[in-house]
Every structure is written in structure tokens, then in C-alpha cells.
Amino acid sequence: MAIKDYITVKNVIFLIVAVLFVKFISKISGIAMMFFASYVLACSLSPLVEILSKKMKRPMAATVVMSGMFGIFIAFFLPIIVIASRQINSLIQILPNHINNIKTFILNKTILGQKIVDMIDIPSFIQPVSDFTTNLVNQSITLTVGLASALIYILTMCIIMYYFLVDKRLIRRGFLMLFPKEMKRKADRIVETVSKKIGGYIVAQGVTMLSVGIVFTICLLLLKVDYAILLGLIATILDIIPVIGPAIALIICIVMCYQIGPLTLLLIIASFFLAQWVENNFVRPYVFGKFMDVHPLLIFFSIFVTAKFLGVIGVIFAPAIAATACVILDELYIKPINNENV
Cα angle at 318 between 316 and 324, to 5 degrees? Predict the structure, then answer.
């Protein structure tokens, strides 16, 4: 079908409505991101729900799958969290000594014959410390409110995800009613392709995160580093944020391990880069190529765009957003152009 066959009054009106809809979504980006994240999670669980729904009612199948996923998550991460919590308690106990060591280092270390303490404008730090002490209660209240808001956000996402799973066919049928008759089949194909690709994102992301955590933790254990499990858990969790997350994890590792010794510290940094190398050269290309087939440059571009307009949640789901945009562009523009040239 030639491009000119698509230029009809209905299609032009539909395009205008789509543009207005995108503009409206940009005004409520936080809500839209919550629904998109819920949809991505629902797509990852949808194949299991489809299998179980052949043996039981779909609402029950969705409940079983979501409960099972939560159970597996708790069973897998609970021992790690318990070990990490013990290491956190141990870290809190030795933290005063750690701070004193940093203080001693700053007071006695010289650079080019001049002490570090002489290079620091001490009075400039007094007022910030005073402000911190004064606002400590307010900050604690803000943190509590933030945690409560995060729990409500997660609970809301779970509810939305449940309805995406239970009413999948009803939601798709209602979505397809927005399209003209001649475009329904193509729209259905696009929705199906997008669902498969972004559903695989959760699996791919989970595998790559685990690869980093496992390799890095094993290296730290072999080096007999204190808080190896905790540092491995931090590296695993922060790896969900592309580019920025691993950099933050590396900084945390350096801060916590700087006093071990230069050789051990270099080995820790080398272990971190080894874990990233294994992920980027072996695990990520295979897993993301198998489940998503999105070029890294597109993922980087989507990271920068989502970071500007959608915040941290947008950065986390940037590959899924990139996959969705690629499918839509491929179906609506690239394929028609190629068919016309043929």
C-alpha cells in the first residue's frame, strides 16, 4: 500500500488526536509513567497468566502469578537482606571510628608540603552543619513521608498491574476501538509486538542485574572484604539505573573501602569493572538482544530524554520506552517506505 493511501481525512484527524494525546500525557508524566511501568510489569507476567488461565479463571490466575512472584522475590532476597542488615548494623557500630580515621587523614595528610586541613575553609562548613542540626527533625519527617508515599506508589502500581493482567483482552479491545477499521489489524499487531518486547525487558534487566551482583560479590568474598554482601547488594540494586547507577555504586565502594590498602582497593575497583565487563560484553548483548533487540545508542538516547522529562523512574524504564518507540516507528514509517520502494 502506497503512502498516499494513508493520507485520508480519518487518518489525519487520528494523527492530530494522537499528537494532542501525547501533549496531554506530557503534562501528567508522573501518572503516565506509573501506568506505563505497571503495564511493563504486567507484560512480563502475562505469559504465565495465559498458561494458568486455561486451568482456572483469569482473576485467580493473575492472583496466583503475582503472589508467586512476590513469594519468590521474598524467598530469594530475604536471606540477602538479613545478611546485609547485619552488616549495616556492624557498619553503624564502627562508623564513629571510620569518621575519626577520615578526620585523622585530613588533619595529617599533606599535599605538596601543605596540609589538607589548611586548604579547607573550615568556617564555611560551620553554618551548613548548624543548619543540618536545626533541620534534622524536619528532614526525618520528610523522609518518613517519602517512604510512605513510595509504599503507596508501589501498592497503586500493583493494583494497576493486576487489572492489566485480568482485563487484558477488554483493555486491548477498548484500545483498538480508537482506530479506524482499516487500521485495527495493524494497531493490534503493534500492540502485540510492543507487549512482547517490553515484557522481556523485566526478564532481561533482572538477569543482567543478578550477573553484576553475583560476579562482584564473589570477587569481594575472595578478597575477604568486609561488607561484601552489602556492597554486592548495592551494586545489584543500583545497576537498574543505566550509566548513573554503576557510577554511584563504585563511589560507595571506594568510600567504604579506601582504608583497606591501595592494592586491595585497586583489586576491588578491578572486580567492579570485571562485573560490568561481564555484564556488558556477555550477558547484556545476549539477553537484551534476545528479548528486546534494541541498539545501545537508542537506549542511551532514551536515557537522556527520560532523565530530562520523566525523572528516575523514566531512566529505569528507558529501554522499554525505546523499544516501544522503535516498534511504532518501524510499523508506521519504515515498513511502509520499504514496501513502496520495492
Answer: 135
Under a CB-based contact definition with an 8 Å cutoff, are residues 180 and 11 in contact? yes
pLDDT given for residue 18 in this prediction: 67
- Which residues form the domain of 221? 3-341
99-108: average pLDDT? 65
pLDDT computed for residue 329 by the predictor? 78
The pLDDT mean for the chain works out to 75
Burial class (CB in 10 A: 0-12, 13-18, 19+), 33: buried
Partnered with residue 115 across adjacent β-strands are 110
* Domain count for the chain: 1
- The residue type found at 42 is A
Tell me the average pLDDT across 245-264.
81
Residue 110, H or E segment: strand 110-111
Scanning 1-57, the segments in alpha helix (DSSP H) are 9-27, 29-52
- Distance of alpha carbon 234 from its chain centroid, rounded? 14
pLDDT tens for 52-68 read 988 888 889 999 998 98
Helices of type H across the chain: 9-27, 29-52, 58-108, 116-119, 123-134, 136-166, 168-176, 184-222, 228-238, 244-257, 262-278, 284-291, 296-309, 311-316, 318-329, 335-341
pLDDT digits (tens, 9 = 90+) for 199-254: 777 788 888 888 898 999 899 889 888 778 888 888 888 888 766 788 888 888 88
With contact defined as beta carbons under 8 Å apart, do 303 and 223 qualify?
no
51 contacts 68 by C-beta, under 8 angstroms? no
Rounded Cα distance between 135 and 119, Å, is 28
Residues 182 and 205: their CA atoms lie apart, in Å, by: 36
Q: What DSSP element (H or E) covers 111? A: strand 110-111
